[in-house]
Amino acid sequence: MLLRLLEKKDRELRERGIAWRLTGVATRRMGWLANANGFEVEALLANNLVVQTPPEVPAPHDVRTWLRLAKADVLFEATSLSPRDGQPAIDHIRAALETGAHAITANKGPIVHAYEELSSLADAKRRRFLFESTVMDGVPIFALFRENLPCIHLRGFRGILNSTTNVILSGMEEGLSFDESLAKAQQIGIAETDPSNDIEGWDAAVKVAALVRVLMDVPIRLEDIRREGIGKLSGEAVRLARKDGKPYKLVCRAQRTTHSVTASVRPEQVPLNDPLAWVAGTSSIVYFETDVFPGLAITENNPGLEATAYGMLADFVRAVKET
Question: Which residues contact 299 (CB under 8 A, 6 or more apart)?
């Protein structure tokens, strides 16, 4: 999807003085592929990559060799989330920065487990470590605070940040069982084959930790976040809650205290006069409380996969224009 979006926005990128080519691809299925002269875009989109690899180029077997052979200026990192340690994304990003490439990721794990280390490394190498796609797809939450809200003191936030559980709860409100609603979420590509990170609240907790670490400058640990998923909710309970005007939502919260931050992810019944109550399907919302703005809300309405790709593209523009 990112490659398709790069191709779609090529004219706009060139108008900004940015020309690009893709010189390396790494996936579980195809392994490490590098061609410093660039792959043909149409062949890439057709998954016809092996024939484009120059025969004289040795096949890389690790990320550092791959980056060197690809002569990468920018790494787009999009491995699956590992909530407990953030790997292998952390190693990939560290390698990119150490070899002189900007690192752009859609993976939340490195922020939770290595944000300070990777940010310091990026500064030392005069490269960028950017991650706008990690929370609410491509909505510029981190850039909003970093670039457009100087001198703001963030006191806390609450929101709905996990699409899978939101889709499941919406389906249960419409009469589906938990398993039927989960199957529907998997069918439309929202839920993973193994949805445990979403259902058990891990994905939402990692997003909370990322927002706290970056925007509130508090190195909160995942174990410090009170976490409860939606697995114990029955369809009957979900439908009754909606009928009573207090629907269930998986609510993410963080609040600054005198010495630290308290945070939680858990199902809550939300009254209908609360904006969170009306966020359904793949939509998301986050409601910030600051010293200047008592309530600053950002809402994303039913995004597609292109939204996540756009967050990485926007980070790409930020990184290379500042080089």
Answer: 275, 279, 283, 284, 285
